[in-house]
Fold this protein.
Amino acid sequence: MERPKRFRRLFATPILLLLAVLATAESVYCRDAQDSVCVNVGMDPGMDQTCRGGTAPGATPIPPPNPPPATATFYMDTVDPTTLYNLGCMKGSVPENGLTILDFGSPLNSGGVLGTLLFDHNGTFAPIGDIETGVAALLRGHWDCGSNPLAALRVGVGTSNYCHAGDCAQVSMQHGSAWADMIDRLDQYVHAFGWDSRLSIAGAIDIEPSWSPVDSAASWAAGYAANTARPYYNYGAADGCSEIDWSDSPCNNGWYQHDLWWVSWGVPNAYAVPEIYLEQGATAAQWQRISLYAASYEFGPIVFSGVLTQRGACNQKGCPPGVNNSPADGWRQLLYAVNSDPATAQPVLSWSTDISWLGE
């Protein structure tokens, strides 16, 4: 098989971005030197549930029959501290185990103030400072109302690579850097109050090839990685990518399999919780092929942290036919897909989360 074109495209990336990413490679959490999967590493929620090794060659692991209970993830329509405190209280009283994502919408620079466009009916701009205040309130609500010491929740504070009004300069290194600073401050907030036995903070971004050029998403990721060792989770899609080929084949909008690997796993901070929406298994097959590309041409397969489904959102507003996987089905599809080949096999997917619309 001919060498993929990834080297040409990688070196076309501005050298500043590469240096910014590589500068943090030694300090990122849970960087496993062995070719193995680390599951539930220690008690420190600062470390991811799965480490950065592949699985050793050999027999395909048998997937566990029962997926973990799905956490609730939300498209956020507000940063109001009282609303978010109550949401945190609800989550703490359930209680939930795993990853929850708060998706605050697409990046925006409004008059020099960095933030996002929320998922409300008015396209409200939320500065990063207001997002931080709201998430801090959610964390306090979770702690105040939670009582189960075994219920550990990681809160992923999310944005996307969507280019608002076609302006892809909004998805920038500057925005990724500011997002990382917010994540670090929230992490310090958790530690200052001693909440880290049950709570942890991470970045998150919904990266989809159709939404921006590669360079925009890669710039955001590099800016994030330059400013923090905290992980971020790509909870996006692999639209247009092959379900069959793994030779760095093209995806939508000029992206390649290499590019999705890079922003989901190649960047030292990056972890993958992909959208597994399609009921016939196509999205799971796409991500398995990206992982197989990585196993074949990079430093090992992607070790997926979990899956995102949208059953809640579909129940609220409806969805086109065929994209309404249940959390259990999405989880099984991806785990079975990666275990279809020893090169991409992993023994477990730690997390399952399902997205819905807050306030609907």
Observations:
- The radius of gyration is 19 Å.
